[in-house]
Amino acid sequence: MTTSTQIRLAAYPVGEPGDDAYETVTVELPELADGQVLLRTIYLSLDPYMRGRMSTAKSYAEPVALGEVMVGATVCEVVASRSPDRAVGDVVLAYTGWQTHAVVPARHTRRLDPEAAPVSTALGVLGMPGFTAYGGLLEIGRPQPGETVVVAAATGPVGSAVGQIARVKGARAVGIAGGPEKCRVLVDELGFDAAVDHRSPTFVEDLAAATPDGIDVYFENVGGHVTEAVLRRLNRFARIPVCGVVAWYNATAAPEGPDQFPAFLRRILTLSLTVRGFIQDEFVPTHQEAFLSDMSGWVRDGVVRYQEDVVDGLENAPEAFRGLLRGAYLGKLLVQVGDDPTVDP
Amino acid sequence: MTTSTQIRLAAYPVGEPGDDAYETVTVELPELADGQVLLRTIYLSLDPYMRGRMSTAKSYAEPVALGEVMVGATVCEVVASRSPDRAVGDVVLAYTGWQTHAVVPARHTRRLDPEAAPVSTALGVLGMPGFTAYGGLLEIGRPQPGETVVVAAATGPVGSAVGQIARVKGARAVGIAGGPEKCRVLVDELGFDAAVDHRSPTFVEDLAAATPDGIDVYFENVGGHVTEAVLRRLNRFARIPVCGVVAWYNATAAPEGPDQFPAFLRRILTLSLTVRGFIQDEFVPTHQEAFLSDMSGWVRDGVVRYQEDVVDGLENAPEAFRGLLRGAYLGKLLVQVGDDPTVDP
C-alpha cells in the first residue's frame, strides 16, 4: 500500500493565503484499476492562477473545494502501471496537485522525452506559461516589426517568453521587473532591449525613457501601479492582452478612490485600444501544435532562454506560493517534491 | 457680399458647456475662388463627440481652437458655385459647423439625392451615426444569432441603429433609455425585444430580467451607472465596442472611490472579455460601401427605422447641445438653421 502526503485547501483565504489556509494529511492510495498509473511527483508547478482557485469569486474555473487537494501541474515518474501506454520509469506531465503521489488514469498524463529538453520545462517555457505567452502575444498582441512591446513580471515564465517572442517577431521588448538584479537579468541574459525597475522612485520617468516611441502592445499580467504607468504611454490602436492581475489577487476590497475606471474607458475610446482577457486553453485547438514546434526550436537554438527557481520540499509550497504573489522569485517557480531521475546528481 | 452668422468657441468649458463657452459673430464671406461653392446651412448635426473637441485633453482629434467656428456636419444648399461639379440648388453633405453660410471647396461636399431618402438622414441613420453603429457592431461586436446585444442611449441615432442591426443579424436587442416614453418607443416603434429604464429605482433588477441569458455584446456609448450594471451581466467572451462615454464627458475630475478599475480589469480577465475603442473613420475603407448599400435597403424596407428631433434656429444650438449631453432628446438631434427646400412646407 502506497501513501501520499497531500496539502489540501482548509479555508478560503482573505488576502494573502496564510498557513491556516492549508492542511497537510497523509492518505493511503487505492489499488490501481485497469488503465491507471501510480505517479510519484518530481516537480510541482506554482502559478499565480492558483490564487483564483482559492476564491469563490466568479471566474473561468470552479474554486478548489474545501478539503480537496490543492490543484497544480506536475512532472511525475510512473512507479506502477496498469496501462499498456505507460511504463514504470516513464516521466510524464500530469495535473496531480500539491501531493507526493497520486493514482490517475494514464490518459490524463503526457509522456515527456528527457532527451529533447529538461523535463521541468514542461511546466514552464514549453508548458502552460510559455503557451500563455505565445498565444496571448501572437493572437491578441500581434506585435509588428519595429513596435514596442512591454511586459511586467518580465523575468517570470510568462513575461520572459513574451519579451523574447516579441524580439523574434522584430519588435522592441521592454521588461518591467522588481529590483536591479532582475533588470540586469532581463537585458544581460534574456536579451530584452530595455528593463525598468518598478520599485524605483523614478519608475514613471524611467518607463517613459525606455519607451520613446510609446507602447504598442502591453502584455498585462500584474495590474497595480505598473499598469497605471503603462496606460499613459500607450499609442493609438495599442493592444492589451490581459492574462493576469497578480498585484490585485490578494485584494480584499476595491481600493480607495478616486475611481480610475471612467478614465480607463475613456482612454480605450480616445486611443482605439483593444483590451482582451484570455485563458490560454482557448488557444489550444488553434495554436498548440505551432507553439510546441516553434518554442522547442527557439529554446534549442538559444533564441528563447528560461530561468527556474526550485524550492525544495512539498512542505515549503505554502510559503513559496506567498513569495510568488509578492514577486520574490526571478524565474519559473517549481517545488521539488522528489528526486529527478533524469538529471545527474 | 454674403455674411455668415457663426457660433465660435470662446473658452474651453469646465463641466457642462455654458453660454460663455461660445461667442456669436457675423462675418463677411470672401468671394468665391475657382472650385469653391457658397453654401447655405439647412441642418446642423449635434453629436456627443463635439464635447471632446471642446477639450484640450489628448484624444483622437485636435480640439477646436479658441475663436474658431464650432465644428459639425451639415446639410446645405448650394447658393453659388464656381465648380462644374456642383450646381446652384444642389443639396450637399458638408462639414461647415455651427454657422449659417460657408465658402468651401466643392470637393469637400457630397451631393445628396433628395429622391432616395430625406436629406436629413445623411446626418443620422445614413450618415456618421448610422455608420458608427454598423461598423462597431459588425466588426467588433460580431453578434451571432440568438445572442443578446445591449445598447444604451438606445433611442439615439447610434443606439437605435445598433439594436435594429442586431435584430437583422438574428440577435436579441435590449435597449436602455431614460424614462418610460423612450422605452415605449424602443419596443413599439423600433422593434427592440426589450427596453429598460435606467432612471428606474429597479434598474439593476430590470436589466437582469431583460437579459435572462446574460449579455454577449454591450455597445458602449454612455458609461456611468449603466455600464456598471451591464458589466455584472456579461457572459464569457462578451465583446464591448466602445464608441462613447457621454455620461462622463462633462466630468471635471475622477469620481470618488472606491476605485473600480482593478475589478474591471479582473473581469476582463476572468470572462475573457474583448473591450475595443473605435472611431468610425477607421472602418471607412473597409465598410463604407457595404454600409450605404445595406442601410439604404434596410431603411427603404422599413427594417431599420429612425427618429429625429429638430430644434429650430442656430441660436438655440448651445442649449440643445447641453440637452443632448443630458439625454433630453429621443432621436437624432438636428438644428434647423435654414429652410429645407426638399420638403413641402
UniProtKB/TrEMBL annotation, chains A, B:
<protein>
    <submittedName>
        <fullName>NADP-dependent oxidoreductase</fullName>
    </submittedName>
</protein>
<dbReference type="InterPro" id="IPR041694">
    <property type="entry name" value="ADH_N_2"/>
</dbReference>
<dbReference type="InterPro" id="IPR013149">
    <property type="entry name" value="ADH-like_C"/>
</dbReference>
<dbReference type="GO" id="GO:0016628">
    <property type="term" value="F:oxidoreductase activity, acting on the CH-CH group of donors, NAD or NADP as acceptor"/>
</dbReference>
<dbReference type="InterPro" id="IPR011032">
    <property type="entry name" value="GroES-like_sf"/>
</dbReference>
<keyword id="KW-0560">Oxidoreductase</keyword>
<dbReference type="InterPro" id="IPR036291">
    <property type="entry name" value="NAD(P)-bd_dom_sf"/>
</dbReference>
<dbReference type="InterPro" id="IPR045010">
    <property type="entry name" value="MDR_fam"/>
</dbReference>
<dbReference type="InterPro" id="IPR020843">
    <property type="entry name" value="ER"/>
</dbReference>
<dbReference type="Pfam" id="PF00107">
    <property type="entry name" value="ADH_zinc_N"/>
</dbReference>
<dbReference type="Pfam" id="PF16884">
    <property type="entry name" value="ADH_N_2"/>
</dbReference>
<feature type="domain" description="Enoyl reductase (ER)">
    <location>
        <begin position="18"/>
        <end position="335"/>
    </location>
</feature>
